[in-house]
Design goal:
Blueprint: H1 6-15, H2 22-33, H3 40-47, H4 56-68, E1 72-75, E2 83-86, E3 92-96, E4 102-105, H5 111-121, E5 131-134, H6 137-143
Parallel strand pairs: 3-5
Antiparallel strand pairs: 1-2, 3-4
Helix pairs in contact: 2-3, 3-4
Length: about 140
């Protein structure tokens, strides 16, 4: 399920009878506005001033609800904290091994990889994930 906007994500929640609370709306809005794939702690810190009664557990619980509804992806890389990505379209991730920053990129030719894999292996392919690892421009500049 590929959502392309915050409004479509909210509609998807309504279809699954999930009530849209102000906290849920704020968490979802933050994810859609953020290009940094924030951790639950980062989301909590960004919203705690607006929602003083919200806990980190509340953020985690809502992210789990969003994940189950198919509007948020949990990105787990190694031992680092999970990062969360609003499901906007098929895309891939370039990950900085120094600071952990994740940057989205698209590559239409990679969707062909599923067809090739299915043909070669006989698998019924459901999905694929691609990650590119390196150092981001900011970390490279800091090394100099």
């Amino acid at each position: 399920m590929a959502n392309h906007s915050l409004a479509e994500a909210i509609d998807a929640l309504k279809r699954t009878h999930i009530r849209m609370t102000p906290q849920r709306h704020a968490i979802l809005s933050f994810l859609y506005e953020s290009r940094t794939h924030p951790t639950a702690d980062e989301i909590y810190r960004a919203l705690e001033a607006r929602f003083p009664n919200m806990s980190v557990a509340t953020v985690y619980n809502n992210l789990r609800v969003f994940k189950e509804a198919g509007i948020v992806k949990e990105l787990t890389y190694g031992d680092a904290s999970s990062r969360f990505d609003a499901v906007t379209s098929d895309h891939y991730h370039a990950i900085c091994e120094e600071c952990g920053k994740i940057v989205d990129f698209e590559s239409p030719c990679l969707s062909e990889a599923e067809k090739v894999a299915a043909k070669i292996t006989g698998f019924k392919v459901h999905a694929h994930r691609m990650e590119i690892y390196g150092a981001c421009p900011e970390c490279l500049a800091n090394e100099k």
